[in-house]
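User: Can you write out an input/output pair for a complex, sequences first and structure second?

Assistant: Here is one pair. Inputs:
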Amino acid sequence: NAGVTQTPKFRVLKTGQSMTLLCAQDMNHEYMYWYRQDPGMGLRLIHYSVGEGTTAKGEVPDGYNVSRLKKQNFLLGLESAAPSQTSVYFCASSTHRDGSGNTIYFGEGSWLTVV
Amino acid sequence: AQSVAQPEDQVNVAEGNPLTVKCTYSVSGNPYLFWYVQYPNRGLQFLLKYITGDNLVKGSYGFEAEFNKSQTSFHLKKPSALVSDSALYFCAVRDMGSNYQLIWGAGTKLIIKP
């Protein structure tokens, strides 16, 4: 039961470096999401995808890019990391839009520190 | 504006006692409401949801939540707390005006003491 898998789990970046977070799901879900979680702020949606080849901006998209070339994968890129992007990143997937009533399945998180 | 509030950053309960984690919301139209739980160093897991129907919703691990439309609340409850219930709990509400995107509360840390 892999579900939603994120890699890497931990990463330390220097300011200005780039990196990509990889998310893979094996549930054949159409919808995928990237959230960031910061203390006292709950989850904030960065970008999401409604299907292979599609992406859309969420609540806090600046400084991030995403791609969904394959249905099972959703990549989150940081082109030039900034300390404000230090956070825990969660990938998630669902059969329908996250608010439609269907359950969202989350990965275990990726801890990113930008120094 | 659509919003969800969890007024308590932390709730402390003795093992065996009943627990309540509070959530209030503000949305236009009828809300869809959710509770998720996050154990340390793990992703969020679905607990329960209210879409329509009975105001008392039962979910995983013995948790339940009561939808109160007049008080715009969706408090999470459990009759007898376990130490293993210690975790971070998130309430979320569907935003009717934003392509059904979920709005998340800030989370409440639940600590169950033996």
